[in-house]
Amino acid sequence: MSRILAYARNTWRTLTSMGTALVLLFLLALAAVPGALLPQRSLNESKVAEYIAEHPTVGPWLDRLQAFDVFSSFWFTAIYVLLFVSLVGCLTPRLIEHFRSMRATPVAAPRNLARLPKHHTAEVSGDARALAATATERLRGWRTVTRTDGDTVEVSAEKGYLREFGNIVFHFSLLGLLVAVAAGKLFGYEGHVIVIADGGPGFCSASPAAFDSFRAGNTVDGTSLYPICLRVNDFQADYLPSGQATSYAADIEYQAGEDLATGVWRPYRLKVNEPLRVGGDRVYLQGHGYAPTFTVTFPDGQTRTQTLQFRPEDQLTLLSSGVMRFDPPGGTYPDADERRKNQIAIQGLFAPTEMLHGTLLSSSFPALNDPAVAVDIYKGDTGLDTGRPQSLFDLDPRLLEQNRLVKKARVNLGEGESTRLDDGTVVRFDGAVPFINVQVSHDPAQVWVLVFALTMMAGLLVSLVVRRRRVWIRITPAGAGTVSVELGGLARTDNSGWGDEFERLTQRLLPEATAAQPAGEKVE
Fold first, then answer.
1. What is the rounded CA–CA span in Å between residue 270 and residue 248?
2. pLDDT of 42 strictly over 80
3. What is the rounded average pLDDT of the residues 34-42?
4. Rounded to an integer, what is the distance from CA 234 to the centroid of its chain?
5. Which of 446, 435, 393, 391 lies closest to 190 in space, CA to CA?
6. Which of 4, 163, 358, 444 lies at a C-alpha separation of 20 to 30 Å from 232?
7. What is the pLDDT of residue 493?
8. Which residues lie below 8 Å from residue 173, measured CB to CB, with a gap of 6+?
């Protein structure tokens, strides 16, 4: 039993040492590297599936090791928890010891002050006790204590306690920062959604289902999201002649809180790095692109119009790709099977500023100057009735392989142009409107992260600037109304600059002294 207790005690001492805490901090940083290099399920599950498909040997093994769920994996959590335990176990005794040292009186002078790195002797006229009182008065900012041994008077002085305090504040702030980050991950959420401008349907954040992608903390079930509704009235972007964006902003209107009941819309100009803050949520403008509009006129004259975002393939020119699926209106095809066989799919490229290489469409500029599309038009079963999820930007290849979707035309269309299929169906490209990518973030610990980051920097600055110093003064009667004054100084931490400081201190304490020996010279 004693051996087990000894083993547990040694294990605890090792775990709670500062060296172990530093090693665990390094391991935590090292463990986060796969999260930056590999796609993560919490951010993009489709990319994880794509990576596993492209790496059939390594991918499944990485998946078993939770390399695609790094920040929720058992091994990352284990390092995180061990780091917490190590820091708490390491810092708590240091804090207690520091408070004890702050309450303790400065230590008595060594027997031989001449052995200290800094030493000075002088003979002055006066009384030992009066000189000790004067020296104590001139040591303002130092913790002092006066001791008497017969006719000899000793003054012990010390300062620089804030150095250790700053060090402790730094490490406890680091611990608090880790706790705040963990709390933010537990109680926070983050969602992304595309909102179409210029009369688009808008967006309301009452449910995770309203987002295109949603990442929730472990304690968030999606039932208590702060409701925010917004719509985009206009979007403006400024570009360099090269096509690089210099700025972009969106004029939005939003509702939150009582506005949802009263129907009041509040205007706001949403800019990059200038989020809308409401109800503890932050709404960021992250990116933009274009949503083409197509109108399909079926053989009986009924029409379907749809505006849908395309995915930018080239971030410089905003050449984009995407898919639209159209279901015939009710009554066009009375039989359900016949209606399913006459659905329309449009897949291709959109260019905000048309540039043609023969018949190959490209884009020369990201602004909406001369919109055009190059599309393939399919007819058949688009998969809308299967209930199976499909990509927003690509057709299901199985539908093409099984000839359930058949290509009917490949055309380039400018704004307002149309094409007619063999059965009389007309597909018209009506133009495009901008869309913005909005991120809604909720992190209840964000303020605490800032507070702990600031206190970390403050503690680090104090620990670097403040220096721990000790000074002793021994005053011994020398006869004929004079006393012998002996000063010794010791730097407990950083020794740089201590020589000049000791000389200035000597001149302040003994301005009228007749030096028996140059200040700062060590006596052997």
1. 9
2. no
3. 83
4. 30
5. 446
6. 444
7. 66
8. 452, 453, 455, 456, 459
Give CA–CA dist 153/420, Å, rounded: 110
**Kind plus residue range of the DSSP H or E element containing 14:** helix 2-15
What is the maximal distance between C-alpha atoms in the chain? 128
Other C-beta atoms lying within 10 Å of the C-beta of residue 24: 20
DSSP 8-state assignment for residue 422: T
CB-CB neighbours of 350 under 10 Å: 28
Angle at 212 between CA 207 and CA 218, to 5 degrees: 55
What gap in Å lies between CA 323 and CA 310, rounded to an integer? 7
Quote the pLDDT of residue 524: 35
Pairing of strands 213-216, 189-196: antiparallel
Contact (CB, 8 A) for 386 and 430: no
> pLDDT tens digits, residue range 467-508?
888 889 998 888 777 888 888 888 876 666 777 788 888 888
Q: How many angstroms separate the CA atoms of 292 and 319, rounded?
A: 12
Rg (CA), the chain: 37
Cα–Cα dist 184/186, whole Å: 5
Contact 259, 265 (CB under 8 A): yes
Q: Which residues pair with 226 in a beta bridge?
A: none
AA letter at 172: F
Report the Cα–Cα distance between both ends of the chain, in Å, rounded.
Answer: 54
Residue 452, CB-side half-sphere exposure with 13 Å CA sphere: 17
Give the predicted TM-score (pTM) of the model.
0.68
Average pLDDT over residues 256-261: 86
Any idea what DSSP says for residue 370? B
Q: 326 by DSSP, 3-state: which?
A: strand
Q: How confident is the model at residue 47 (pLDDT cuts 50, 70, 90)?
A: confident
pLDDT at 522: 45
Burial letters for 267-293: b for 16+ Cβ neighbours within 10 Å, e otherwise? Answer: ebebeeeebbebeebbbbbebbbbbbb
Helix runs in 142-271, H state only: 161-187, 259-262
In sequence order, which ranges of 104-195 are alpha helices (DSSP H)? 128-138, 161-187
User: In 42-141, which ranges are E strands?
Assistant: 118-125
Residue 210: both structure tokens together: 């309203």
Q: Provide the mean pLDDT of the chain.
A: 86
pLDDT for 349 equals 95
Look at phi and psi of residue 481 and say left if phi exceeds 0, alpha if psi is from -120 to 50, else beta.
left
